[in-house]
Amino acid sequence: MAGQLIPPPGIAPEAPPDATPQKCIADWVDLMKSCDKFLLAGLQREVGPHGDLRAAYRKWYAEHREEHDRTLARLIRGLQRCEAGHEPPETFVDVQVDLLLAKTAYQKHVLSRRVSVPAAILGMDVDVLSCEDLIIFKLLAGRIIDRADAAALLRANRSSIDTDDLLKWIDNHDLSADFAEIWDEAFPGESPPTSNFAGIHE
């Protein structure tokens, strides 16, 4: 179909017959971790054995975010054209979303306090994670791109973040060491805030 960006479902590769949802998720996580290893190996090759890998990653991340922002801008322009009737009905706009399937008590808690934000271009409100919960999920994902995102979220929202609530769930998920690392990434040389909460694990 002319202008179609998303291929028809019929040509997508089929999942193995024994692939349970849990196995598919585990395979996806393994794939993401492998991608991280390939990225770091490529950056290390560029800077050499004694080069600054962290600086190389920061540069790659900045370039990645610029491309991400350009992609979002193209998406918004495409939605605006569709809304204004400038695109034929059969035209598709490629939209990527993350779906949160709540299973644990924490995930259900996260959904219970989701934040509704207006999406004028869609003519509706969209429910999203709070900034604190998004940081937690980024740390739980653990990929280098997620950790960089978490640091960026801290920098951009420092004045409005509920630090006590964030630290409570950091402790709950045994993420204190990870949080200290991204805090140093966001605010070099500054000690991270501490919490008196005792983790209550699921």
Condensed summary:
Helix content is about 55%, strand content about 5%. It has about 200 residues and is mainly alpha-helical.
Please describe what this structure looks like:
With 202 residues, the chain is mostly helical. It has seven helices and two strands. Strands 1-2 form a two-stranded antiparallel ribbon. A hairpin with a 4-residue loop joins strand 1 and strand 2 (124-128). Helix 4 runs parallel beside helix 6. The longest helix has 31 residues, at 53-83. The chain is globular and about 50 Å long.
Keyword list:
5% strand, 7 helices, disordered C terminus, 202 residues, mainly alpha
Largest beta-sheet characterization: 2 strands, antiparallel
SS content category: mainly alpha
Strand content: under 5%
Please state the overall shape, judged from the principal axes of the Cα atoms. globular
Rg, nearest Å: 20 Å
Write down the overall mean pLDDT: 79
The strand line-up of the biggest sheet is 1-2
Indicate the low-confidence ranges by residue numbers. Answer: 198-202
Work out the helicity level: 55-70%
Identify the quaternary structure here: single chain
State the order of secondary-structure elements, H for helix, E for strand.
HHHEEHHHH
Report how far the terminal alpha carbons are from each other: 49 Å
Alpha plus pi helix count: 7
Which secondary structure elements does this structure contain, and how are they paired or packed?
Elements: H1 21-47, H2 53-83, H3 105-112, E1 115-119, E2 124-128, H4 131-141, H5 144-157, H6 163-172, H7 176-186
Antiparallel strand pairs: 1-2
